[in-house]
Design a protein that fits this description.
The chain has a four-stranded antiparallel β-sheet. It has seven helices and four strands. α2 packs across α7. The chain is elongated. By secondary structure, it is of the alpha+beta class.
């Protein structure tokens, strides 16, 4: 994830945030579908509020990605075993649905600090904590984009068994 952000031209700002992340300045980190929120303790007494937003994938985008993943036995087996295939980004890209943001416009970042630059060091610190969260649980990236581990695995099992998609609400 950090490599993706650096490729978007954010490397200078990210370096400043790394120290905040390593010093434990990121508080109350929460990852939900489409959002990451946190508080970052800066130089002022009150922590800054940070939010990073990505658009969750649409139902159709997920359907294409799940079909592609289910069609490859190795990917299906790894995912069902709780492992994230290294090539998963390629599968999403081939479906026309990149897993990671392609440009800075694919993410909306905000911080309550007075620094107008994006990302500020507080946002950069949260990016580092987010990257660590993805390293600890790669399924977190999928959840951020709209499919939690159990929901994805249930879809893969259903597709592999040749069962039709359940009707929507």
């Amino acid at each position: 994830f950090i490599d993706v952000l650096e490729s978007l031209g954010m490397s200078g700002r990210l370096a400043r945030g790394r120290n905040y992340a390593r010093a434990g300045q990121v508080l109350g980190f929460e990852l939900t579908t489409g959002y990451v929120t946190a508080q970052v303790q800066g130089s002022r007494p009150r922590p800054y509020r940070v939010r990073i937003q990505v658009m969750p994938l649409t139902a159709r985008q997920w359907e294409r990605a799940e079909q592609a993943l289910a069609a490859q036995a190795l990917f299906r087996a790894k995912l069902l075993a709780g492992e994230m295939p290294h090539e998963i980004e390629d599968v999403f890209a081939e479906c026309g649905t990149p897993l990671f943001p392609r440009s800075a416009r694919d993410m909306e970042m905000s911080c309550s600090c007075p620094d107008w630059e994006v990302p500020c060091k507080h946002l950069a610190a949260v990016c580092y904590v987010l990257a660590e969260a993805f390293d600890d649980d790669p399924f977190g990236m999928l959840a951020w984009r709209g499919r939690g581990r159990e929901e994805l695995l249930a879809s893969l099992r259903r597709i592999s068994a040749g069962q039709p998609e359940p009707p929507g609400p």
